[in-house]
Amino acid sequence: MDPKYEPPQTLTRSKCSACYKQYKKNEHLIEHMIVSYHSVHDPACTVCKKHCKTLESVREHLSGPLAKADCMKVFVERGCILCLCIFDSPDVLKVHEQNCRLSPAPPIGFGGTTLLEKSTQSEMEITSLSGESCCNQGLQVVAMDCEMVAVGSVGSDACARVCLIDEDENVLFHSYVKPELPVKDYRYEITGITEAHFQDGLSLKRVRAKIKEILYDAESWKARRILVGHSLDNDLLCLRLTYPEHLKRDTAIYPPLMKTNLVSHSLKDLTRTYLGYEIQTGTHDPFEDCVAVMRLYKRMRGQVHQNEDFSPSSGIPHSINGFVINGFDAYDTNDLMKMSPDALLQISRPKYMCWCLDSKQASDTDLDSSSSVASLDKILDGFSLSGE
């Protein structure tokens, strides 16, 4: 008698609920989840809901050479090429695109004279942060950009022009900055700066004091503003300023805005790709760059993500002293092995702080960690490139 036929067993795979990768063993899925930092804040395809590391990866998934056919078909018909959202109909998409594609910021100046033309106007202070212009539900936001020249025998970067704006694109401060060392290269093709711009410029020490007045609380001398920029650390270094990490928002290193290989995009590329207009077509204007980074920040902050439970009862804090905590640290291996892929995704946390959380922060957020920053700035106050 023939032995009883037994059909081959179907191999059960553990599938990641975020990126849809499959694993033979559940422990391999858990290892993947721990190192991937998937979360509800991941950029994701609005058609199939697949999570990606960056928005550029989502764009390639929707319209690249190896795009998923079903998703690409929907995206071509009803998808916005800027924000990558899918809409109910082409008509709704057309209405959305009128608001999603922005126009370049007009040049600033007095009486129709732009800053580039009015070189003798070395300092501008037009508005303050005391009004209702900033986000009512969170911390006030300031964007900053600097233009550099090369100074000294080795051509070190030095801040030659700086601009700060508020969330409504009002100029808070603008000034040309007198270099402390002889200028080796004005980089005129990029900066548009000549020696004449420095005649009525401010000293670096005075510029730093002005910026601190904007960023710090006058009474407690604690940092009370979210500071937005592109390659922000470079600007702060040239200004010889420091600022709390948890209050910096840098479009050059914000993971969703980076390339697929996690290399930074230029601000020019980011503005074209996500805002729909061109900047830096001639000499660089710090006001124009400030507006671009502020708009990028607001677009990222305005993304709607599922709320996460960061309450003490959840046992899963988002961060401790600024360091991101992964939700898996609150569970042992046996508990994780019993969880479904959806449950694993639910407790997973991103490796970075999503900017959408800024709109949920209370205005009385504890910022005591900035006290050490103020102390470090006092040390830098006494430092001079000229050795004086």
Automatic annotation (TrEMBL):
Alphabetized UniProt keyword annotations: Exonuclease, Hydrolase, Metal-binding, Nuclease, Nucleus, Zinc, Zinc-finger
GO MF term list: 3'-5' exonuclease activity; nucleic acid binding; zinc ion binding
GO cellular component: nucleus
Subcellular location: Nucleus
Gene Ontology biological-process annotations: rRNA processing
InterPro entries, alphabetized: REX4_DEDDh_dom, REXO1/3/4-like, Ribonucl_H, RNaseH-like_sf, RNaseH_sf, Znf_C2H2_type
Keyword Nuclease found: yes
Main location: nucleus
Domain C2H2-type: 14-43
CDD domains: REX4_like
Keyword Ion transport: no
SMART domains: EXOIII
Homology family: Belongs to the REXO4 family.
Name listed for the protein in its UniProt record: RNA exonuclease 4
Gene designation per UniProt: SDN5
